[in-house]
Design a protein that fits this description.
With 358 residues, the protein is of the alpha/beta class. It is 28% helix and 24% strand.
Length: 358
Amino acid sequence: MSLRFVEVIDPLAKKHVSVTPSWQPSGSRIIYLDDPHHPLSVEHNEQRGSADLALELWESDRLVVSGSGLLWCNNEILIDPRFMAEYWRQNLTGTKWSKPERDVDLPIRTIGAPVISALGWAANEVYGHFILEMLPRLIWADDALRMEGTHAKVLLTKGFPSSQLDALKVAGFEENDFEFFDPEVERVFLARGYFPTYAIRGRRNPAIAASLERRFPNPRELKRAGIAYVSRSKIGFDPLRRNCTNEDALEKIAQEFGAEITHPQFLPWSKQLELFHSRSIIVGLSGSGLHTSLLTGGSLCIGVVGHVNLAQARIAGVRGQRIGYQTKIRLSREYEVPLDGFRFLMDALIRAARQPVV
């Protein structure tokens, strides 16, 4: 069966809540960038972004959900960019996270209770997509609905990772708040479905920041101190991602600057959150290991080794964090980080952390 598409959600749903983005400058501040002409300087200093990034919650009684959050109406896939990231549209078929050619023939089960669908590309497996694409819009949508007295369940896939379930529970959701479906054998029709748009796409939106601060407050008893280096060295070589070949040398240099070497991916969720709440500086290779900074406040300094995308810059903007980058690295499946450049980054982070947050 050939796939057919619907370009926009408007005829299929009605807008339930809309929050206009803030046009005030982002709260982030770049404290070190080894290449002043790097596009990151534009992202921070000029705050480029589209004018149509309102945060919206749509309500529909016509949409079916499959896989990692594909939305359907009459067997046509919704490809509205507010609900499907560009890279998902470009990789719509042929990956383990997006199989519309399989989903289109699956039976449909109806769920009558109010349900929020905030699943997104690989969010049911990959931590970075969960923390950036699913969690912020889910908690904002839940806040918006609860303010008007509506209690909606959260749509999750069968086998949703326990660590990410723990994160949702820390955010205030309980076991009976989850509605599970098996994407291998079924699609689900949401008779009372709520669908939040992507939340972190550019400009700072104070509604997202407010929801994050309510759900993940910085404990008053934790005072920021010390440096943590977030290491991937225990993960091992992965042919599907970028692999740093000299991270052991980075760890030794970080320790020279007084850093503790941490492996948060092996810690319980509560301990991961405590780590990001309690350190003054957290530094590591570019990637999802640093993304937990989305859940902590603005007095944190983040050091990013390598540059892949704007995700960390946008997190810093949402939470008002200071951030430094080492970008002069030839990223590939196997790459080596220049050690002198890493020393410069560490020195800049320490000097910045000594300055009061303004």
